[in-house]
Write a structure and sequence with these properties.
Blueprint (H helix, E strand, L loop, with lengths): L12 H17 L8 E2 L1 H8 L3 H13 L3 E4 L3 E4 L4 H22 L8 H10 L10 H18 L3 H13 L1 H7 L4 H18 L3 H19 L4 H10 L3
Antiparallel strand pairs: 1-3, 2-3
Helix pairs in contact: 1-3, 2-3, 4-6, 4-7, 4-10, 5-6, 5-9, 6-7, 6-8, 9-10
Length: 235
């Protein structure tokens, strides 16, 4: 169990809880805390240099969100991967994102700033493509969120963002595989081009296939692959 060194937070209790919460969540996403890892409130409090009260509040928040389990006699544990749960989240993503494409197909995209930014990011030459897995993973997440946001339904975007955060750890694992970076540039570019050409059914088909490939990665996760991801993240 590895927890990142403490980051400075303001003295206000709410800010301290938020800081600890974000730090622990980042530790989970960056594989410093691995599925199955156990730890105590005292260990966290010592690492983040805070009292146990804000630590406990942050831990219970993560427990409510499904990242941790609490064992009343033996401390806390990072929740093991529930593969069926992740696959179901990917299915919901497909529903939301294909619906967003349908809405975008009815809109004037000529001056849409979000779509313009996506084109500048993904429709680039091979020499301009980023190769850093963490950077591409973050940009991939942003691509899908931006498509839903651009569709203009605030509630749809909120739901999609919640799902996005829950599968972030899987997305990080996906991008530890080298070929996925090149494939993501190609697939995102194709989705955007189909959207801009008003070929919405094709765009939806391409998007569905793109997400299904990532969904399949859920079934390939092993403990060894998690440890490799931790090493790549510098854990």
């Amino acid at each position: 169990m590895q927890i990142a060194p403490s980051k400075k937070t303001r003295d206000r209790p709410d800010n301290m809880v938020e800081g600890i919460y974000r730090q622990l969540k980042d530790d989970i996403f960056e594989f410093r805390l691995m599925p199955g890892d156990r730890f105590s409130e005292s260990e966290v409090a010592e690492r983040v240099q805070a009292s146990r009260t804000p630590v406990r509040q942050a831990l219970y928040r993560l427990e409510r969100e499904g990242y941790l389990l609490v064992h009343f006699r033996s401390g806390w544990q990072v929740r093991a991967f529930d593969f069926k749960y992740f696959e179901e989240l990917y299915d919901v993503r497909i529903v939301l994102e294909t619906a967003a494409l349908a809405r975008l197909g009815q809109m004037d995209l000529e001056g849409n700033a979000q779509i313009a930014i996506l084109r500048e990011t993904w429709q680039v030459s091979e020499s301009e493509r980023l190769q850093d897995a963490a950077q591409v993973s973050a940009l991939d997440e942003r691509f899908h969120c931006a498509l839903v946001e651009a569709a203009g339904n605030v509630e749809m975007a909120r739901m999609h963002l919640e799902i996005t955060e829950k599968i972030r750890i899987i997305r990080r694992l996906d991008f530890t595989q080298g070929p996925r970076i090149e494939a993501t540039y190609i697939e995102h570019g194709q989705i955007l081009q189909a959207l801009l050409e008003r070929r919405i059914e094709l765009a939806q088909q391409l998007l569905r296939s793109h997400i299904e490939i990532s969904k399949q990665e859920v079934r390939k996760i092993t403990l060894h692959r998690l440890h490799v991801a931790r090493e790549l993240a510098g854990g």
